[in-house]
Amino acid sequence: MMSLPKNLGELKKSGYVSRTVKEELRENLLKALREKRNAFPGIFGYEHTVIPQLERAVLAGHNLNFLGLRGQAKTRMARLLVNLLDEYIPVIQGSELNEDPLDPITEYSKNLVAESGDDLPITWWHRNDRYTEKLATPDVTVADLIGDLDPVKASNLRLSFSDPAVIHYGLVPRANRGIFVINELPDLQARIQVALLNILQEGDIQIRGFKLRLLLDIQFVFTANPEDYTNRGSIITPLKDRIESQILTHYPNSIAISKQITDQEAAIQKDVADKVHVPELVKDLLEQIAVEGRRSEYVDAKSGVSTRLTITARELAVTTAEWRMIKNGEKKTSVRITDLLGIIPAVNGKVELVYEGDREGPAKVAQHLLGKAVKALFPTWFTSPERIKRKKEENPYREIIDWFGNGNMVELTASLTDREYKNLLYQIPGLDLAVKKFHPNATGDDLNLLMEFLLFGLSEFSLLSRHTEQDDVSFQDILGAMLDGNSDDEE
């Protein structure tokens, strides 16, 4: 860190000019905009929706409320606001409220300035330390946020409770000259939300009847799920009225954007990434699973499906393939469609099921979403069987379907070596030729994956039967499966 003034006299001589937090954010954002720098790196899909609204709100000096379903980068955007603060600001040494040496707000600091004059010692506060975050929970009290009288302090200092020196300040006053974030605001009890009204409107606080006029300088940011989602509470109308800008967030508008987010966030070790190849088709399927979850009749739409689902699903898909590779003593492998059955724990923890979903069970719903994803993406890789039937075209899958119709069956187990996996697929007449018809340049692992994907797709269009047992999948003729009782209970 460069040499900075150490006392009030040096600070004055340096020409330092005090700015409020909102002025800092505004000026530094303007600078970023003029220099065409991205002030919110790592946020994808909001370039033409959320980010412009956020930038305009910051320029207007507004307190913010990000309103959206879970997993929509609300907290991340709040944390990125720190980068728009000045790198360092001066603080009166020993001040509980991080007061500006040129503009103290407590009697204690005002007296200190009067006594010490230009010799008043100051310290410098880095922007990373100027961020305070609190998760709203029902047990949060006014004392936690605003403050209360401290009997221990009163006893140690031998002061009466009428002396302001016995006050213990809460999180909000201690965030003075910084950014204060309350996550999940509707979960905060209504009577606690009331305590924030005066701070937002007047910028001051009141503690236990003390006539304090502390003009706090804080950028407030709140996050909330839509009120129709959470039954635990809501934002009271007077508080909502005092939050100047409410910005609606949303899920990614395309698979490509979703993949960017997952690529950035998935924690996959480099040595694993070097050994386990993740084809683009697999990445697309993982993202499509989340899309299908958001519109599934089994999933609570008000709850949403977090982008964390695809992140953890990508990680589990890779580790499932890695697990198989290690068990088989292989050095490299590629993620298969059957490996996606290993992501069920990730799906289970990321979706809220409605009554119908609970009846099916989380594992069954996860398999259902995978099937929906396969069916949705199939027409982008192969000709849809529905289109073939509608236009009365020659069926390129006829040889495959006839082979299964002759009583043949294929079982793809989780433990298959790469060689066994390939041999099983190639034993199905016409499967590789059907893939080559649509993807003539496909080779190696990519060709094998497309062959497997074609089987899954044909089963989703009810041309084959698919039965799933734990991590193992078997394919056979529809009629044969009905007679054997081996067909999955799909739509």
Structure, briefly:
With 491 residues, the protein is α/β, with parallel strands linked by helices. The protein folds into 2 domains: 8-248, Rossmann fold, CATH 3.40.50.300; 255-484, Orthogonal Bundle (Helicase, Ruva Protein, domain 3). Helix content is 44%, strand content 12%.
Tally of helical segments? 24
What's the overall average pLDDT, rounded? 89
Please provide the count of β strands. 14
Strand content: 5-15%
Oligomer category: single chain
Output the CATH class name of the largest domain: Alpha Beta
The largest sheet, given as strand count, sense and whether it forms a barrel, is: 5 strands, parallel
Do you know the CATH topology of the largest domain?
A: Rossmann fold
Judging by the overall fold, what is the CATH architecture of the largest domain? 3-Layer(aba) Sandwich
Question: What do you see in this structure?
Answer:
The chain is an alpha/beta fold. Helices cover 44% and strands 12% of the residues. The chain has 24 helices and 14 strands. The protein has a five-stranded parallel beta sheet with strand order 4-7-8-1-9, covered by helices on one side. The protein has a three-stranded antiparallel beta sheet with strand order 12-14-13. Helix 12 packs across helix 15 and helix 14 packs across helix 15. The model has no long low-confidence stretch (mean pLDDT 89).
